[in-house]
Here is the input.
Amino acid sequence: MGTQIKKVSEIPGPKSKEILARRAAALPSGLGKSTEVVVEKAEGALVWDVDGNQLIDFAGGIGMVNLGHRPQVVVDAIKDQLEKYIHTGALVTTFEPYLDFAEMLNGITPGDFPKKTLLACSGSEAVENAISTAKYYTKRPAVICFEGAYHGRTMLTLSLTSKYGLFKRGFGTFAPDIYRFLSPNLYRKPANMTDDEYIDYCIERFDQNLISHVDPSAVAAIIIEPVQGEGGFIPVPKRFLEKIRKVCDEHGIVFIADEVQSGAGRTGKFLAIEHSGVIPDIVTMAKSIGSGMPISATTGRAEIMDAPHLGGVGGTYSGSPLAVVAAHATVKEINTPEFLAKATHVGDIIVSRLTAMSKKFEVIGDVRGLGAMLVVEFVKDRTTKEPDMDFAMAVIKKCVSNGLILIRAGLYTNCIRFLPPIVITAEQLNEGMDVIENAIAAVLAERK
Here is the structure.
């Protein structure tokens, strides 16, 4: 055992249990929690609970802290801004931090064309702004999204989201004119197809759906995650992204890349879609661009972003000065060759360790992702690929009890996702991977 995890009590300990009881009494039962960790403080890739246990964080606040917990450059930027003003409202006044950050994103997102940026508070709002703007620009009603997608929890973004039982059950009716197409999942392709044949099949289905589901002339936007997040960290093949770009160009459709989870340097490039060379019209960003502060961005072609009438976009909290200075400091650190190389390196270590585990444990069906955005998928049988969600949950519980914070993912909730802060040390990373390997072995032994 390494030295980064330090337990002084069981997890959860007595103080944590008291607070968890208060949570159960005070908060709605529908507000899920992936672990029973009650946080006292956090820094870098470490979290301390209220009982004094020191844990390693592989969940990163669901991909919120690529730059680590409380990076000093971000803390300093927030403190400095606090001494000036907290809120005057971008709908009322103009303040330079908003402009500084917008100009930064306009310059570093893909595409050699004029861009503009609209800020908001959450990933869902960023997607809402992108869709609404695309509809306004095209004067069309329909939106194409994909199976396995996750885009948020507002009415429109929940309508775009898959995984009905977890996210959508009981919350209908949903937004109209949304059409869900097949997205390639190479792990679950038909056994008789090669990868290329399966991608060809998905492209053929795409074309068929443009006849049977919706005519392109009615489509305002096609939105896709370059790496599906909640769907199970499934990278979208380059040829499929190129197909979307081609259809959008041919029919005047707005191509939206949802980079809320896959962006901010997580995959070894600032945005995951950069790996493909495909250039979207609009990009949505959130999560780690603000190091945990509530901020999101919708950045796109200037002529599209300028389409809504004066006063048609914005919000009271959107572009909060505190969040904006945090995001500017964060992205400045993230969008460097050194940080992006570190993300790739972290991912390489995780893949190497998980690949070695897959040779030992038949319950591991797949290891996949891009850069440091990775999952391990558990199955009951490697041939049938029947999902084993109970095994994934058992491993997570055992890991958390031993000081490693993890969360699940995947359409079947049978995957464990890896979103550690990119600033994690090699010692912390390998100790965390040791905990996972030991947990898998222990759960398997308990099953016998």
Observations:
- The mean pLDDT is 97.
- Residues 73-334 form a domain with the Aspartate Aminotransferase; domain 2 fold (CATH 3.40.640.10).
